[in-house]
Amino acid sequence: MATVGxxxxxxxxxxxxxxxxxxRDETVTDRHLVDTGLLASARARGAAAVRxxxxxxxxxxxxxxxxxxxxTCSETGPEAERVGAEAGLRVMRVDRPMAxxxxxxxxRIALVSSLDEAAATLAPxxxxxxxxxxxxxxxxxxxxxxxxxxxxxxxxxxYSAAVAEAVRRGVRAVEPAVDVVVLAQASMVGAAPxxxxxxxxxxxxxxxxxxxxxxxxxxxxx
Length: 222
Prior knowledge:
Blueprint: E1 3-8, H1 12-24, E2 29-34, H2 36-45, H3 51-63, E3 68-71, H4 77-87, E4 91-93, H5 96-105, E5 108-113, H6 116-132, E6 138-143, H7 148-152, H8 156-172, E7 180-183, E8 202-203, H9 205-217
Parallel strand pairs: 1-2, 1-3, 3-4, 5-6, 5-7, 7-8
Helix pairs in contact: 1-9, 3-4, 5-6, 5-9
């Protein structure tokens, strides 16, 4: 039986990714490991400083049967992919499939973040994905100041509403208009349904990452 592992830095992500996985393919099992200290340490000292801890968590999930591990924290994702490649483990940063989809959706991309570190890690990935696809992109930063505290306190509803409002104001103020909006952090998934009035695609990382992970572990035509 195929198994997808998830390395989280917030408890709230467990249900989100479990539900998405079961919606996509209920025959695939899931394993979750939550380490809330990883993000705090990475923000304070840099992702490289938690490299050993990331390697340990990835090995634990692999030992529990994970065929691929999705790292749901955008801050630690790049380091986790490097660690996984060196250790011979299949590791996917949560925002990679979203970046690949975004560069195909349009040239002007609104990059939305509530943490500066998230934007700083996603921007190079978007440019990397654009280069691989033979495309040119223009990134438009949209910040959501003062919203992260609500997510940290567990108030996801308030956080999602505040992010959506910040995005709506930011995107509508941009000239010329953007072609696609990417919500840089998995924590922002709840804001997407509130942004249907923007009339441009709004991409979030969780669903796209789960779909990509399932494609890696489930035989084609099964």
